[in-house]
Known about the structure:
Layout: E1 2-7, H1 10-23, E2 29-34, H2 42-50, E3 53-58, E4 76-80, H3 116-124, H4 128-136, H5 146-160, H6 168-175, E5 182-184, E6 187-188, H7 190-203, H8 208-215, H9 231-237, E7 248-249, E8 255-256, H10 258-267, H11 273-278
Amino acid sequence: MVRVAFIGDHQVKSLKQMLDLSAGPRTDQQTIHVDPFSGTSKVWREYIERADILVVQSADPSFELELDELNQMAPRHFVPRVAADFLWPFGGQAHLRNFTASPVPGGVFTTELGDAYLNRLLVHGANVEQIVQSYSNLDITTVIDLDLYVRLFVQQQERLDPDGHFDIAGLVLRHFRSEPLFRSPTQPGTRIIRHLAEILFTRMGIGSERLKKIWDCPGKTSSGVQLPIHPHIVRHFNIQWVQKNHIYTFIQNQRVSFKEYVRRYVTYNSGTDLEEGLY
């Protein structure tokens, strides 16, 4: 029995699922996913201690888990966490009205789907349609340096992958204009997850037949939600796959444009019938 512990967020969980699917019903492989960002349990720590192989996510900021003190004998394979903040520079902040009692766990507009700029507009208060129009027409380069965000993205990926085995920055810079590589800031799509899997599993010594099964796997990430990209960012970077009035798949397969996303954000009141009806 070969025990593999995958330690990291939902991206690493996707890699675990791909490895599991490739193994088939009969296997001497046992895997577990440990999300150290949500806390660790005694059971998880015991499994890490017993694991034959550790797959560890390189993240920034790093998670609080004393890995250096756990299972020092098992080989470790590091995989970088990927985040495209330059496409959603106001992300990372949940909606001001996300309540714990929400019908949708965590509320609809979590840190992954929230918008700090819109939160500031909500604090100041304004007419809904005025906010929709002003934010949709905002020249973001008057507020932040988008090209600097790209350089920071490259620097972060190089820091998380110092040996350059994965070259995520190069992959993203080559393709983000022509295809949707991300669904939201930390939700990479199929191309990136399969790229991570190919490099990781090859380094783990997985044979060619097993790799072929992995490539036949769906390679889905943990969410089908697409966070709309601000129209000015689309124009600034010349993102070709986003059309004028582009329609995105949102919560519960709702279809929304960027303006409709903003409108729902502004009128959103977590824990009310509005949330249940719209989402």
